[in-house]
Amino acid sequence: MNRRPVYSKDVRERAVRLVLISEHDHSSRWAATQSVASKIGCSPETLRAWVNKLEVDSGAKPGITTDHAKRIKELERDLSRA
């Protein structure tokens, strides 16, 4: 059975920073994502999701933030127990 590798928070943050910094050196953000992903050993799609999550959490992109999603899960869990 295949296990998904677990990347530390530090590795994820560094990889996202590299994509955002090196984006201008590539033809597109996807090209930068592919380049950085190959260097750290994750899939480009995984890294793309990390970049998107950072943009939502920072308010640069619309969506549900990580903290908000966590709070919703807690409330749903509380409702199911009641």
Report the sheet-strand fraction.
under 5%
Residue windows where pLDDT falls under 50 for at least 5 positions = none
Number of helices: 4
CATH architecture: Orthogonal Bundle
Q: Per the principal axes of the C-alpha atoms, what is the gross shape?
A: globular
End-to-end C-alpha gap: 37 Å
CATH domain topology: Arc Repressor Mutant, subunit A
Computed structural class: mainly alpha
Number of domains: 1
The ordered string of helix (H) and strand (E) elements is HHHH
Mean pLDDT: 94
Can you give the helix content as a percent range?
A: 55-70%
Query: What about the largest sheet?
Result: none
* Rg: 16 Å
CATH homology superfamily = Winged helix-like DNA-binding domain superfamily/Winged helix DNA-binding domain
Count the strands?
A: 0
Write down the CATH class: Mainly Alpha
Description of the structure:
This protein is mostly helical and 82 residues long. The protein has a single domain (9-81), classed as Winged helix-like DNA-binding domain superfamily/Winged helix DNA-binding domain (Arc Repressor Mutant, subunit A). It is built from four helices and no strands. The chain has helices at residues 9-22, 29-40, 44-58, 66-81. Helix 2 (29-40) crosses helix 3 (44-58).
